[in-house]
Design brief:
There is one protein chain. This protein is mainly α and 52 residues long. Helices cover 50% and strands 0% of the residues. The chain is built from two helices and no strands. Helix 1 packs across helix 2. The longest helix has 16 residues. The relative contact order is 0.20.
């Protein structure tokens, strides 16, 4: 099995939030929304080299 390639640079904060919300609802049973502002805050707090 191979690792999933990184795509973080191809999605904006709103798209990452939308994907996270879908994954959480579909597979995690979590209804609390992930907001684009939270994605932005997490990306800002993470070194650029770790954005994949």
């Amino acid at each position: 099995m191979q690792d999933m390639p990184g795509f973080g640079q191809q999605l904006d904060d709103a798209q990452v939030a939308e994907l996270a919300n879908w994954l959480r609802a579909r597979y995690g049973g979590r209804d609390e929304p992930v907001l684009a502002d939270r994605v932005h805050a997490l990306r800002s707090a993470t070194p650029e080299s770790e954005h994949r």
